[in-house]
Amino acid sequence: MKHRTFTIDTSFELTQATTRVPPHLSPDGGMLAMSIQPHKREPEPGGNQSYTAHGVPKEMVGSRVLVIDTTTGDVEEPFPDASTSWGAQWSPDGTTLVAYVQHESQTCLATWKREEKNYRLYPHVFVRPFFGFEVPQWTPDSQSLVVKLVATVCRVVAI
């Protein structure tokens, strides 16, 4: 996990927001989650026309979720350095961030606890979003998620 301060120079280093992935503001307005990726992405070998061999949609290759403190400008990368992540959404209670993450195996669901600043991967939850706007959806009680799975069936997953 990396930590730095967000400045105008940082915005030029970010390169670009990930295609069609909306940023998401925490319920208290204190944290902004957004996905970024380099302008020039190297294609990953293998996979099919739409996904990499690890289940990352081609448009999301190289994406990284950033969490920006809206007061201080501090930036954190909540998921492992050698991963691809996108589609982050804050829970309604603001305590947990969920995103799609590909790290060392197939793309799965992952969470990041805001206070503890630690992440957890759910490698048994093989997600299969295609468009950037197909983000995980929390239930109002912040206890479960609705995500698009590999079998292309939506299912509620308890976290």
What this model shows, in words?
The protein is mainly beta and 159 residues long. It has a single domain (3-158), classed as 6 Propeller (Neuraminidase), CATH 2.120.10.30. Helices cover 4% and strands 40% of the residues. The protein contains one helix and 13 strands. The strands form three sheets. Strands 1, 2, 3, 4, 5 and 6 form a six-stranded antiparallel sheet that branches. A hairpin with a 5-residue loop joins strand 8 (96-102) and strand 9. It is globular. The protein starts with a strand and ends with a strand. The mean pLDDT is 84.
- Biggest pleated sheet: 6 strands, antiparallel
Number of domains: 1
CATH superfamily: TolB, C-terminal domain
CATH class: Mainly Beta
Note the beta-strand portion.
Answer: 35-45%
Based on CA atoms alone, the radius of gyration comes out at 15 Å
Average pLDDT, to the nearest integer?
A: 84
Total strand count, please?
A: 13
The helix/strand series, from N terminus to C terminus, equals EHEEEEEEEEEEEE
**CATH fold-type name:** Neuraminidase
Percent range of helical residues: under 10%
Class based on secondary structure composition and strand pairing: mainly beta
Distance between the termini: 22 Å
